[in-house]
From TrEMBL:
It is found in: Cell membrane. Coiled coil: none annotated. PANTHER family: PUTRESCINE TRANSPORT SYSTEM PERMEASE PROTEIN POTI. Keywords: Cell membrane, Membrane, Transmembrane, Transmembrane helix, Transport. This is ABC transporter permease.
Length: 278
């Protein structure tokens, strides 16, 4: 058996410390959420129970946890759909050079480097100036799109840069209309990337705090609600909420990954069936 060099163990130890730094706080919150009924916000733990999860699903004396959760969920789906539609449309448009395309691309990507709190402040001021109500479903929606769209655009640009146009040419040679080419050729091929864009759009919106801070109006999204709870909740119920939302995020990611896996299996099955037919 080949002996591993000493540098291997150094790098492995460094990676282990990095993983501990990355996931240690989340694991700590998850552990403290199982405190006993008389447990506090710090170690040592006083027993183990599901008490704080039970209280989480009961009527809370402060805040509107489940209302904020529903708003974040709905906003996440709205942002996800808009991100997918705009990203695909822009990806198709940028396949051909047009006047100002470079400037438009860099202006769009620039929103990634602008401080999020300034974006939130600017969007809120614009809505106030034009007389529109600052609300999570309008100004909050627009503010979060400035965060999700650049990621979606970068993914779709990368996908279309290596897209084989011969598939479209073959479909057109067979008499397919432009709509049919998009629907039956382009979309099925880029479907896994679309799911990736959708996942980016939803998850980035679901836990966005800074760009929602000054654009949500009178109703908090879940990240804002959790931040507000840190000032007036002194029991591990806030840890239970953190554990619940983390598990929910992991379930959403798992659903998206499972969808990609199923689509890949179907594509392989269709390819093998086509090979047998020929």
């Amino acid at each position: 058996m080949e002996k591993r060099p000493g540098s291997f163990y150094v790098l492995a130890s460094f990676f282990g410390l990095f993983m501990l730094f990355l996931y240690g706080p989340t694991l700590t919150i998850g552990l403290l959420s199982f405190q006993g009924p008389h447990g506090g916000l710090t170690f040592p733990m006083q027993g183990m129970s599901f008490n704080w999860f039970r209280e989480l699903f009961e009527q809370q004396a402060v805040g509107d946890i489940w209302g904020a959760f529903r708003r974040s969920l709905l906003l996440g789906f709205m942002v996800m759909i808009a991100t997918v539609v705009v990203s695909v449309s822009a990806g198709l448009a940028f396949r051909k050079r047009f006047k100002g395309s470079g400037i438009l691309f860099y202006v769009t990507i620039t929103s990634l480097v602008i401080p999020s709190i300034l974006v939130s402040l600017g969007v809120g001021l614009i809505f106030n100036q034009i007389g529109f109500k600052v609300h999570w479903a309008t100004s909050g929606f627009g503010s979060q799109l400035t965060w999700t769209l650049p990621f979606g655009l970068l993914i779709m640009f990368a996908v279309f840069n290596r897209f084989d146009k011969s598939f479209e040419e073959a479909a057109r040679d067979q008499g397919a209309s432009p709509r049919q080419v998009i629907q039956h050729v382009v979309v099925p091929i880029i479907a896994p990337s679309l799911i990736g864009v959708a996942l980016f759009g939803f998850t980035l919106s679901y836990d966005e705090f800074a760009r929602s801070l000054l654009t949500s109006g009178s109703y908090n999204t879940l990240p804002l609600e959790i931040f507000g709870m840190t000032t007036n909740v002194t029991t591990p119920v806030i840890y239970a909420l953190g554990t619940f939302t983390t598990l929910f995020s992991l379930i959403i990611i798992g659903v998206f990954l499972m969808t990609v896996w199923i689509m890949g299996k179907r594509r392989q099955r269709a390819g093998s069936d086509a090979g047998k037919a020929t």
